[in-house]
Design a protein that fits this description.
Length: 331
């Protein structure tokens, strides 16, 4: 089964929930824009892949999750971390490779994890998240703790054997697992029209005996609705769902990508489709929130990101003594 859900009304969310959703999306956007600037300044080591443009996906899905639940992310993981509640200052320090980072500076942008928040990790292995999520969902099912597990992955990762095997296992084991295919149209510079055999990734769900849904990834409310239905079904023992979220990423595949493979679509998306602009227009037009309330969040978030950067730059790097810590896991 595939289909496009009708857009729900924002009346269904309380003002506090709407403010929180906006705060999450604004924090992701500001975090990303700032990391883009700082990276260009040469201070940030390693590879960085930015999530800007895709905020409604992380925010819309994670709004339904709590401490019982876990997510697995991708190399483009900052947004997922923020939406699952990982501390922004610790994330910034991690990206700067500082010992105050969420992984003590040893992971960097591509490997931010915080198990205390159910964030199992950003992942440099394309298609690495879905199998992790099957494991976590299986654990939740056996423990009976009501938890669901969510794998975010890209259109490129949707073609990996690990992803397809996970979709199969999730149905066979009737797992409380959600698969969120974030289709931004490209795997590095390869258009999904060259690499994805089906018209839509969500079409593949039928082959694995689960519902498949396509949503407009620029619309927080559409993502929120689709994810809410899927997560409620999973918690109720109804098994997995594949959700395909379609949008455009605003920056290149990685910081430094010249983007010779695409043109005006980014400016168009930023101008016309942007999830933050759409959210603002909808809740202010509908009278749920005022522009002042939203501007207040903008100011608070901007200050928090500034503080995070200042603190990250001032923090120490891991020293030689840290080389042999965190190497082995004890059970
Ligand atoms: C197993 C594996 N193969 C290849 C790569 C190299 N690689 C890194 S990102 C990427 C593209 C991923 O595209 P997609 O899954 O669509 O995610 P997006 O970057 O669009 O968010 C590739 C091929 C990798 N990191 N891991």
């Amino acid at each position: 089964m595939t289909g496009t859900l009708s857009t729900p009304t924002s009346q269904e969310l309380t003002p506090d929930q709407l403010l929180q959703a906006y705060r999450v999306m604004r924090t992701i956007r500001d975090f990303e824009e700032r990391v883009h600037e700082e990276f260009a300044g040469g201070d940030i080591p390693g590879f960085v892949h930015l999530y800007a443009g895709e905020e409604a996906s992380a925010a819309g899905v994670c709004a339904h999750l709590d401490e019982r639940d876990a997510i697995a992310s991708t190399h483009r993981g900052h947004g997922h971390c923020i939406a699952k509640g990982v501390d922004v200052a610790a994330m910034m320090a991690e990206i700067y490779g500082r010992s105050t980072g969420s992984c003590r500076g040893k992971g960097g942008s591509m490997h931010i994890a915080d198990l205390s928040k159910g964030m199992l990790g950003a992942n440099g292995i394309v298609g690495g998240g879905p199998p992790l999520i099957c494991g976590r969902a299986l654990a939740s099912k056996h423990k009976g703790d009501g938890g669901v597990a969510v794998a975010f992955f890209g259109d490129g990762a949707s073609n990996q054997g690990t992803t397809l095997e996970s979709l199969n296992l999730a149905t066979v084991w009737n797992l409380p697992a959600i698969f969120v295919a974030e289709n931004n149209g490209y795997a590095e510079s390869t258009s999904s029209s060259w690499s994805v055999a089906s018209d839509d990734i969500a079409d593949r769900a039928a082959a694995f005996g689960m519902p498949g849904v396509i949503v407009d990834g620029f619309d927080f409310f559409a993502v929120h609705e689709a994810a809410g239905e899927a997560i409620a079904r999973a918690r109720d023992g109804g098994g997995p769902t594949l959700i395909e979220v379609k949008f455009t990423r605003y920056f290149g595949h990685f910081e430094g990508d010249q983007q010779l493979y695409r043109g005006a679509e980014v400016a168009d998306a930023r101008e016309r489709l942007d999830c933050l602009k759409r959210f603002r227009a909808r809740v202010t037009d509908g009278g749920q929130l005022s522009a002042d309330q939203l501007d207040g969040i903008d100011s608070e978030v901007a200050a928090a990101i500034d503080e995070a950067v200042v603190a990250a730059k001032a923090a120490p790097k891991p020293g030689p003594d840290d080389l042999l810590t965190d190497v082995y896991v004890s059970y």
